[in-house]
Design a protein that fits this description.
- By secondary structure, the chain is an alpha+beta fold.
- The chain has one domain (about 20-85): N-terminal domain of TfIIb (Single Sheet), CATH 2.20.25.
- Helix content is about 25%, strand content about 30%.
- It has helices spanning about 5-20, 50-55, and strands at about 20-25, 30, 40-45, 65-70, 75-80, 85.
- The strands form 2 sheets. It has a 3-stranded antiparallel β-sheet with strand order 2-1-6, with no helix packed on it. The protein has a 3-stranded antiparallel β-sheet with strand order 3-4-5, with no helix packed on it.
- A hairpin with a 2-residue loop joins strand 1 and strand 2 (about 30).
- The two termini are about 20 Å apart.
- Bound molecules: zinc ion.
- Zinc ion binds near residues 32, 71 and 74.
């Protein structure tokens, strides 16, 4: 493999790992509710309840997946597992 191809491969891997991605849920492509963009930055958010926090059981609360639209910044929340769509 040439140096150029090695560098391109490394860049592709970095983008695949860290860059914005498209996602699906139940085989439906996710689009931004505001602008219809398909590329999102994925994150996680705790769904803590006041009762569980009060008795020290924060660990028992669920986690939600957040998708922040790369175009307009709108954030959508999901409690089901999302599937990442390859960028190519
Ligand atoms: Zn958007």
């Amino acid at each position: 493999m040439s140096i150029r191809k090695k560098i391109q491969s490394s860049i592709d891997n970095l983008i695949m790992k860290n860059g914005p991605h498209r996602y699906e849920i139940n085989e439906h492509r996710i689009k931004c509710n505001q602008c219809q963009n398909e590329f999102f930055d994925k994150g996680e958010a705790q769904l803590n309840t006041a009762g569980m926090s009060f008795i020290g059981l924060d660990w028992a609360n669920k986690t939600a997946t957040t998708l922040a639209c790369r175009n307009c910044g709108f954030i959508m929340w999901f409690v089901k597992t999302l599937t990442k769509v390859p960028n190519r």
